[in-house]
Amino acid sequence: MDRTAFLATAAVIVPFSPVIAQSNPANVPVVSDTATTAQAEPRADVPPASPNAAPPAASNNIVVTGRRLDIARDSITPSLGASQYTFDREALEKQPGGTNLTLNKSLLQAPGVVQDSYGVIHVRNEHANLQYRLNGVIVPESISGFGTTFDPRIASSIQLITGTLPAQYGYRTAGVVNFKTQSGLLENGGEVGIYGGSFGWLEPSAMIEGSSGNLSYFASASYLRNDLGIENPLPTRRAIHDRTTQFRPFAYVSDILSDSSRIAVFGGSFIGHFQIPNVTGVGGDFTVNGVSSADAAKLDQNQREITHYGVAAYQYAGNTLNFQIAPFVRYSQTRFTPDPNFGDIIFTGFADAARLSSLATGIQADASQQLGSNHTLRFGVFFQNEHTTSNVVSSVLPIDEFGDQTSDVLINIVDRGKKTGQLYGAYLQDEWKLTPTLTLNYGARYDIVHAFTHERQLSPRANLVWRATPLTTLHVGYARTFTPPPQELIAPATVALYNGTTKESEIKTGDPVKSEREHYFDAGVEQRFNGGFKLGLDAYYKIKRNLLDEGQFGAAVVLSPFNYAKGYAWGVELSSNYTHGPIDLYANVARGQEKAKDINSAQYFFAPDELAYIQNHYIYTDHSQKWTASGGGSYTIRNRLGTLVPTADFIFASGLRTDDPAGIVPNGGELPSYFVLNAGLSQNFSGPGILKGVTIRADVLNLFDKVYQIRSGEGVGVGAPQWGERRGAFAGISKKF
Fold it and tell me: Full-prediction pTM beyond 0.85?
């Protein structure tokens, strides 16, 4: 990186920050009397309130106790010094499409979040490396190719936490997505709705919530069917063979045991079926049983994804001691079935019927202990046991030493594998108030992984937050991070099995995938203004060893991890938002890049000339994007029926990487930039009679019908080309009761 260019960029770009995704690096508390506003962590210059402080007057002591326990739970693991962006319930519902959209589309409105194919997002130019938590509890990642496990409907708020994370955050450190789930504590009722429109979109949903005595509950379910399961590999309006069905149920039950304790049980599922979209005009290169031609548009490849997860959490909130203990379980399975008429083999020379599964169980415990007025000690442990299996049946053809097909009779090769691995982690940190306006949060975590790799690391962390004025907050931080490779995605091929066949690798060996190790530096400032305006600036630099990346190397659309020996990343994020009365406006812009060299694991996935170049040259990682921007707003108009809310948002991308047009530098090219605008209008009825609680909405996504390419199909580890979703018109109606 050119240091002068980096500093100049940080100095001259106008800052922006979201309303929908509010930046809060200093964790200034958000005060609200509603259930839908996210509760932020204690401010750096204010001692955290005791969980057993006298509650405000209320007619329902159980509600007051439950809310106090929520605040106490959130204070166990605050993100002090990190950058936090919060989507509260109101913001999620106001965006075009509302909570009918998938989680990744909402997260694209946060600074530095990049869109990729298969519903993947990148935070700060990192591939994956995102951790998902429900009420502070880690839910192990799924073997997912396309589907997003969590439904935004279950959230009272969603937080995206980035930067130099405090010691309680480990394993996935590019960002933490924390759902604060709805609980039914504050009201009895529910909602039913239906949404649909272009591309065969049909999405019914239902929710119910309530409380009785000490018990509260919430349950939701949504079903989605459309013809947009995966991005279109062609620049046409409609993809060929792209139907998807998706089902996401969720349930939460909580019992308040006393004024200082409760137990909560929650869990859900994702069940998705995806057709793999087809292309046209592609010729076959191989002959199977005397047949050497097939219609690419009629291929029938399918993928099914299943994830089930559950958590049981016991919480205690005493005068000075506060802790939560949460055992968890997650089962995930992905199945890919090739074309039954041998079309895959005619076009590529092989067909894989793949089944991958993973069962993860474990326990997470987090605690905080107040030590006087200036110190809060936080500590915790984590353990996970994961058992993964892979079963791949490959239909291949024999070839000679020159790569020419020698027979049209298929050979079936079975490649099975299984692994049981463990993750161990522990952390200890201290929030030390050096002065009334200066807070140091310092500590360390120690992690061990025993799976396909056996590694460990001590990771120090430190964040300094200075509240220079009541409206100005600065932070600077350092974190060493340790990211084990995702065991659920590793299915090492027995390369020698495929020698002499059309699935033979040019590289015959590969080193095991290793854990990524990183030095992370971050600094930023947030300036608030009277009148509801806020500006923010954040800059970061990362030095990486064994940088983890993922690519699509087989027919099944499940990504496989590999390492670069060295890498670095840098970026600047600028944000702004304005909230005043009925007006909500926000905008973000980010500049960044990630480069790496020397692929040092899973080398059998790559061509020899590609490996040779990357061994001695830094290249852009395929998911690196120079410029990313997002923004939007809404205006609430009160009328005789209730409220009318027009809303709009946009994303801008300078384009992901592709191969150098000259064919010399891997990932040396860049796709064209694009701008996508979405718009929506909703009418919320406040009465009378049966209309009370009804919401009618209409949305147009990709308003200007922009034709844009997300992936070209070229680059290191890049599979098929993908094009963005074309213009679609949608409408919905829902009723709260």
Answer: yes
